[in-house]
Each structure stands twice: as C-alpha cells, then as structure tokens.
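Quick entry, no commentary yet.
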Amino acid sequence: MTPITEVEGRRLALSNLEKVLHPATGFTKGELLHYYATTAEVLLPHLRDRPLSFLRYPDGPDGQVFFAKNVPPGTPEWVTTAEVPRSEGPARMVLVQNLPSLVWAANLVTEFHTPQWLIEAPGEADRLVFDLDPGAPASVVECCEVALWLRERLAADGIEAYAKTSGSKGLHLLAALRPTPSGRTTEYAKELAMEAEKALPRLVVHRMTRSLRPGKVFVDWSQNAARKTTATPYTLRARAEPTVSAPVTWAEVEECRSARPLTFLAPDIAPRLRDHGDLLAPLLDPERAGPLP
C-alpha cells in the first residue's frame, strides 16, 4: 500500500520509500524525501517563482535519466503552474512555491533546475551564472583558481559573486543582478569568459569544443540565455552518491587543494546550515543586486 502523508493540509501519496536511488551509499527514496523536507526552509526561496525543469532519475543514476519541462501528468490541481514563453510556442510549467509542492516534486525523484529569471518577467535576468566545468585531469581545484579570478573581475564591475558546488565535478558562480535582458547578461558573461581565457590561457577555455577542454576549465557563460537552466542551490544530483549542489564559503574555495573537501552529500547539509545558514541568501536580497556595467 502506498503511504499517504499530509503536508500543510495537502494529502500526498509517497511511493517506493525503500528503493535505493544512490547505490554507492544505499541512499533511499525515503531519505531523499527527508532531505528535501528538512532543507525546504533554504531551498524554497531559490525555487520560488522560477519555472522548474525536472531532470528525473526515478530508478537512480544508472536507470533512465531524462529532462521534463512541461507539467507532468497527474500533477495535483493545488500545485502552481504558469504559462512560459518558448521559441516553439508557450508551455505550461511547474512552480514549486511551498512545502507540499516541494515534497510532491521530490517524490518524482528529480534534480531541480531553474532559469536565471522570475515568472513575472521572463527573459529579464535577476541572476548571473558561470558554470565552471573541468576537463580531466583538471578538477574542482582548477575550478577554484578560475573562480577566484572571476570573483575579482566581477568585483571590479561592482558585482558580488557567490559560489556553490555543482554537485558533480565543478563549481558554479552566482551573482544577483538588477533585472537585465537575458541577451545582455549572456553577452557580458561571454566577454568575461573570454577575458578569463586570455588571462589564464593554461587554465581556461570559453568554447565548448571537447578537443579544447582536457586539463582546462570550461567557463560556461551560455547558461545565462533565457532558455537555459542551472541546477538549483541545494538540489540533489543524479550521481552514485547523493551529492548536493551546495553553497561554499570563499575561504573554502581559497583553501581547496583536492576535490573531496568540496564534495558534499545530503547528510552534510544540515550541519553546514547550522554553521553557516544559507550562504546564498544575499542573492535573494534586492538591495544586494547590482547593475551590469
């Protein structure tokens, strides 16, 4: 029998709670749901008012992994949805606005991916993002070197950057912006990626071409495009271990000498929140948002 639980007055059927989703540690679906429920206070503000792209892995990372952008079949009527413009025509997508909708979405077993804009102003970016992706044998260590250069370069333009792990191999840099057309934000990000490649030619590449990337960090500027999404802070990733896209301090970035200290699993997050709170909370403060130069 499928367990029924009540979350803030909404009845939810939760399925397959004993299924192992992250085989390297035996992390189950029940543990995944517990993680999201107990992290909701910091996760929800980063999801709110942003149309959600699901990267689903219902049978774990070794099973089928697929993106779903449209409202899934069987979505409860109380889950908020909104029409979102797309080049191929408008689509209806989910907005995770509260704890019941978060638990419902988590029960689908998904990574959470969101755009750099809010539903009230599609295509007007309120965040800038750089996805630093290392090509082997480079690792997050090299990503940290590049992140520190980008942090200083952004600061020179009056933009304050914050870092989080990707939950995979790399690092994400985020900054709050006053609403700016996504096309302009993308142009600016590309300009900085090209500057980084010129300043750090042995470390950085700004083009996605695979043959250019071994041993270097690809500074992916393209995720600022209105149609693109990035892993949301605190989302679990579809990996063998239950890795999290976790905010990190700049001291941790500066001190990084190996990948393991910047690899965070679901059980690591509650202690980090007790120690640091939400390190990305400034992204949610309109007073901290700066204009592009």
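second:
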Amino acid sequence: MSASLPRPRVGVWLIGARGSVATTVVTGCAAVTAGLHPPTGMVTETPAFTGSGLPALSDLVFGGHDTVDCPLPKRAETLTAGGVLPPGVATAVTAELTAADREIRPGGPTPGDTRSEADLITAFADDIRDFTRRRALERTVVVNVASTEPASHGPGAPLPASTLYALAALRAGCPYVNFTPSEGMHHPVAAREAEHSGLPYAGRDGKTGQTLLRAVLGPMFAQRALHVRAWSGTNLLGGGDGAALADPAAAAAKNAGKERVLADTLGTVPEGEVHIDDVPALGDWKTAWDHIAFDGFLGTRMVLQTIWQGCDSALAAPLVLDLARLTARAHETGLSGPLGALGFYFKDPVGEGPAGLSEQYEELVRFGRGLGQTGGGGGDPRPGERSDAPGETR
C-alpha cells in the first residue's frame, strides 16, 4: 500500500502581523484546530461550504510584515488581559504563536527609511517568496489587516504603504485581500498592475459591525417603501484603530465605505454623518450607535435607533480566515481579477455584486459551490451546479 501524500499547505501573509486582528487570527486558528473552541463566526465552516474544496484550518501557515517588534505571544497576553482572548487559550497555543512570530519580517517604510519605493516593493516581495519557498507552501495569500491609513494626496504623492504591500503581493505572484479601508490595490498604480497579473484579489474594508447592520437595515427600508430622511451614526473605539481614525483623513476613508452601503441599498444618501471618536480606555472594544429618521404612511415620522457593542478583533478574525481560505481556493481553481462574490465581507467591495447582505450571502454560497466543481487539492468536492459568481477564468 502506498503512503498517502501530505496535504498541501497554504500560507497566510498578514500585513500588520503583530496587531490585534492578526494576533486573534493566529490564536483563533490554532485554538479551533486544536478543538479548544468552535469556529463561531466562520461562514466557511458552515455546511454550505462543505464541498468547496477549501484548505483546512490546520493547513494554514502564518507569517507577515509589521513595523513593531512585540512578539505574538506577548501580544496575545495583552489581548487576554483586555478580555479579547479567553483565559488560557493563548497559553495553550504558545507554540503556534511563536512559530508564526518567527515568520514576521520588518515592514516599512519607517521613519528614516532611505529605501526607494521600488526597493521596498522588491524587499517585501522577496520576503513573501522566501516564506512560500522555505515552508514548502502550495500558495500564499496576502491579507492586509494593518491600521487605517489617511487617504492619499493625489497624483505625484508617494505611494501609501498599503499600496507598496499590494504591489509586493502581485510581484510575488500571490492573491491579495485588503481588509482595511486603506488604498491598497485601489491605487491607480496597483490597479493597473492587478489587471494584468492574472491573480484574484478582494476587498476592501471588512464589514464587521455598524455597516453589517446597515447592509441589513437599508434593504429593509427600501423593500418596505419607507422613506429614510436621515441616518446618523457615532463610533466610539480605542486600540490602534481608534488612534489611527482620530486622523480626520483616515476617518474619511473609513466613512466612505459606510456611506456606499446606504447609497447602494437605499438608492440615495440620506442626511447625516458618521462620527468616529477615539476612546483609548475602550481598548479593542467599540460601541456603534445609529439614529435613523424615516417617514411612514401619510408622512408619519418615526425613528429607529440601534446600538452595537462588540470586540473588533473577535469580529474580524473569523472573516479574515474565511477570506484567506476562499481566495486561496479561487487562486487554485484559476480565477483571476476582482472577486466580487466576496462582497459579503466588505463595506466597499471590488467588482460587481449586490449591496444587501442577504443577496450577498446568496452570491457567496453560489461562489462556494462553484469552487467545489473544479479539481485540485484542499478538500473533497461534492457534485453541484456551477457558480455564476464574478471571476475571470484564466
């Protein structure tokens, strides 16, 4: 009897690899793999994706770039103290955290960095290629989970760091996911290169809390023919995101995605704005409040208010794992270009697709079924109908 071949492993290269989201991703993946916790929040672990041929969580190998040097085990201790990670889990998966930390390379540009943009892109791409080669990985997906950047200053301005990393991913031959509102692949320079790369990519700005509710409530008002007069919101958050979003330019980049959801689901942008306040004492926790003024029959004025209180890292981590697995499988099956069917996960998705959460979910499930129709490693595909989800076969 011949020995069974080892299953191919898939790399997940995290930009912002020592941040709260990345630390929760690595910790959570190890904890779920070890059976310490169920995969709560992971859509790809539901029955709808059983036959999609996705890489197993146990086959994911983590590395990344970061500009800070706090080791992942220490970062996990801090998150445990803050209530983000449950007691004992970080200790139980210290070996996995340490292994991932060994694969984190210095990011940039940092203050005083004299390297050119071309040098930085080359260095980042070399790091990703080296990781893929040394760990004998079948492929690597690059996922940006770094703090939000201010919007770029137009033509002639230096490329933002997120775009340098996106270009590095393309140069390394890796599919790319932008989980942040930062420009990344949306920058014209990167967009042109992505168009000719033959690689799949997805983003941007993960839909984890306030905008998740908006993607549900917006279609409700439209479908019930209720006129929304004003929709205002406030976000209170701490941690790295709170500090980053204290910059008005960064907050503007974040709010653009929130407004797009309303424009797409309501057909218009109602009065009102979203305000983001940095409250360091909240740490990784956030409160999002919405005040919706709408008209009912005969012009009767009414109000709906919502409050969402949650932990950003715990909301984001399962989505990052979903996206890494789905994008890796899309690459394996030969899809390229913007993966519009992954719009379920984003405030400002690339490609074409519906805006309402229910329709986005249906599109995602069809996409998952389509992934199961193509041969390749990573799972045991079931028969089913082919997806018509966006994605160009190369």
